[in-house]
Design brief:
Layout (H helix, E strand, L loop, with lengths): L7 E6 L2 E6 L4 H25 L6 H5 L8 H8 L2 H24 L3 H18 L11 H14 L8 H6 L2 E2 L2 E2 H4 L9
Antiparallel strand pairs: 1-2, 3-4
Helix pairs in contact: 1-4, 1-6, 4-5, 5-6
């Protein structure tokens, strides 16, 4: 059992100070959240690979006209090189994001990638129905961003080790501070 007594977190956003105190089980649940969302996107990608060839054009061409991206996605569907790119990029990134999150490696980068992909799916699935604004894809966006914000790769993940790798007598993130934005 840990003897650490302070589990406070917070920040200031738009002039409003937000402060909180984490429960002792918070670390366990952030690991479970990271692994669960990682498994969800990993198996989505593996499903696309298992049913190869994956074809993105059907999704892109059939976005509801009420969606704010319907014209853009229609143009993408009509661009052969982009469709070929998406056919490989979507399943490959889903597998990579899933593996990274489960392993806890490059978590912030992986979670941001997952959030962007889910946001694109969310916009593509927009039907104009006000009751559909809060669908599961939007929840996935928020979960990915939460995993990134909490630096979930530092809890039972490889990011804690990667950050401490010795590079020229310094820890990796001390030598290259910008890596704090992709690790964690």
């Amino acid at each position: 059992m840990s003897t650490k007594t302070t589990n406070e977190f917070g920040g200031e956003f738009g002039g409003i100070t937000l402060l909180g105190k984490a429960h002792s089980l918070s670390a366990l649940f952030i690991v479970l959240l990271r692994a669960t969302i990682g498994g969800m996107i990993l198996f989505a990608g593996l499903g696309k690979v298992a049913e190869w060839p994956f074809e993105a054009s059907g999704y892109l061409a059939n976005v509801d006209p009420a969606s704010p991206v319907s014209g853009l996605y229609g143009a993408m569907a009509a661009t052969p090189w982009f469709v070929e790119f998406a056919n490989v990029f979507v399943p490959a990134t889903q597998v990579l994001v899933g593996v990274a999150l489960i392993a806890g490696a490059f978590v912030r980068l992986a979670a941001l990638g997952g959030a962007v992909q889910m946001a694109l799916f969310y916009l593509g699935g927009w039907t104009g129905d006000v009751f559909a604004l809060f669908d599961s894809t939007l929840v996935y966006v928020i979960v990915f961003l939460t995993v990134a914000a909490f630096g979930a790769g530092r809890v039972l993940g490889l990011d804690a080790r990667i950050e401490r790798l010795d590079v020229g007598g310094q820890a990796l993130v001390e030598r290259f501070p910008a890596l704090r934005y992709v690790l964690g």
